[in-house]
Each structure stands twice: as structure tokens, then as C-alpha cells.
Amino acid sequence: MLLLRILLVVFFIFAAVDACSPSDRAALLSFKAALKEPYLGIFNSWTGDSCCGGWYGVRCDPETLKVTDISLRGESEDPIFEKAGRTGYMTGSISPEICKLDRLTILVIADWKGISGEIPKCLTKLSHLRVLDLVGNKISGEIPSDIGNLNRLTVLNLVENAISGTIPASIVNIGGLMHLDLRNNQISGEIPSNFGKLEMLSRALLSRNKLSGSIPTSVTKMYRLADLDLSMNGISGLIPANIGNMPVLSTLNLDSNRISGEIPPTLISNGGLGILNLSRNGLEGQIPDVFCPDSYFMALDLSFNALKGPIPNSLSSAKFVGHLDLSHNHLCGSIPIGSPFDHLEASSFTNNDCLCGNPLRTC
Q1: pTM of the shown model
Q2: How far apart are the first and last CA of the chain?
Q3: Do the Cβ atoms of 254 and 235 come closer than 8 Å?
Q4: Which helix or strand (DSSP H or E) is residue 267 part of?
Q5: Is the N-terminal amide bond of 340 cis, ω within 30° of 0?
Q6: Positions of E strands within 24-145
Q7: How far apart are CA 251 and CA 198, in angstroms?
Q8: Fewer beta carbons under 10 A from the terminal one: N or C of the chain?
Q9: Given this model, what pLDDT does residue 18 score?
């Protein structure tokens, strides 16, 4: 009898550990009901009362037994995917019932290709949310206007959806945001003028949208920003003069916009900038002759602009230049001799006014 009592106590302890609150379980089941995953059967485990132990992609706080993580990724190395030999496909929408998971910190519903509908506006009430990753779906509508209420958010990833509207002004209130990726959507309007308030941001990836207006000068105050990609939009105006003084900026992609004016010398003299793409804009003036021995460009693309004058001789002093494209401008004069010019092909210099020298025609 004693042994039986011990076994019963152990059973109920483990049952309690795996159980989750009835309200969280109900919210998860409503979330599941709005989705259809026909191939992998990942929701087959979402049965019984033990949503904290064995429900695929769900994790709970071991003390409160409240759901903290939902991580469902359609491109995964999980054995379920490997055994099926395919990536996931899911249709349906994200039910607002998910907002009843009031301790949720991580929400990843990514790479399912067929999930549509809008981002539930009530998500902005999840005050504990740190990661919101909805990449690779067909989600439409706008980013909730009060997204700035998520003051603990560190990652906002909405890449490759059909999201429209503007970047909400309130986004600058997310003081701890480190990673912002809105690429490949239909977002329009201007970048908020006080975008530089996002002082913790290290990556701002906004390419392949319909953004307009100019690059906010406040961006130059973002001392942690390493990667800024605004390419393939309709951005106009000048490049902020101090953008090259940003201390950790290593990648700047501004290609395929309507940017005008001259190239700020600080962009060329910044020894930490490894990728600079300013191609397919309306840049004028000369290429600043301020390259230095610290210059280390894995890629430098200034093609398809209206640049004139000679190729700067100081470019020969650069420590390294991997890919260089100066084609389709109005450059003139002799191509400098030596590195990096001795390993470049003619395509790097074609369609200029009067460039000559190796690898083009002899001067």
C-alpha cells in the first residue's frame, strides 16, 4: 500500500508539471483551429491536458506553467521534417485567441508559405513579448499602429509577406529593439524622422518595399547599427553627410532608389565599412579621393549613377577591394595601375565617358 501511495504521488506530480492553465490550453486549441497543416502532422501532439509537455513547438515556464514560447518554423532541421523529406506548408490565419497567452515571450510562426490574414492587433498587449517572427508567409494588412507598446521586443521579423501601410510612428518607442527586418513587403510612406531613437538596433533591413522620402538624419546617431539596407525602394534626397561616421556600420545598401547629390566623403574613408552599394541612383559629382590603407571593401558598387571625373588614385592605397563596379557613369581618365585594378574585369568600368587603361583600351 505504501508503494502504491508513493507511485500515485509521483504520478500526480509529473501530471501537474506537464499540465498548463486551462485558459492557455483553450487559447492554443483556438490558435490551432485557425490553421491547417496537411503534410507533417505537427499538431497531432496537441492533445490532452499536458500542453507544457509534448505539444510540438510549445514551452512553458516551469514554475507558473504558463505558455511562454510558441516556435513553429516551416523550414526546420527537426526530425519530423527530415523524416518527411520536405519543408512545411500551412494555411489559415493567426487567431486573435493567441493574445490570451499573457506570458508569451517568443512567437515564431515562420516559413509556412500559405498563412494569410492580418497580424492580430491584440498582439501589442502581450507585454512580455521579446521575439515576433512571422517571416515567409502571406500575411497582409498593416503593422499594428501601437506596435511601440511592445517595449520588451528585441526582434521584429516580418520578411517576405504582403504587409502594406506605413512603418508605425510608435515603433521608435521599442527601446530594446535590436533586429528589424521588414524586407520584401509592400510597405509605403516615409521612414519615421526620429528613427534614430532605436539606439539598440544593430540591423535595419527595409529593402524591396515602396518606401519614399529621404533617409532620416537621425539614423547617423545609431551607434550600434551595423547593417542598414534600404535598397529597392523609392527613397530620394541626399545621403546624410555624417552617415560614414557611424562607429560600427559595416554594410550599407542604398541601391535602386532615387537618391541624388554627392557621395559623402565619410562613406569612403570609413575603414570599417565593408559593403557599400550605392548603385542605380542619381548620384553626381566625383568619387571622393579619400581611400586609405584601412579601407577594406568586400564590395563597392557605384554603378548606374551620374558620377564624373577620374577614378581616385587613393583607391590604390586601399587594403583590399574585392568586387568593384564603377560602370555606367561619366568617369574619365586613366584607370590607376596596380591593386586592386590588376584583378578586375572590363565590366567594372564599361559605359563611362572616356576611361582608358587596363583592362579597357590603351590610353
Answers
A1: 0.91
A2: 102
A3: yes
A4: helix 265-269
A5: yes
A6: 35-36, 58-60, 67-73, 90-93, 106-110, 113-116, 131-133
A7: 18
A8: N
A9: 58
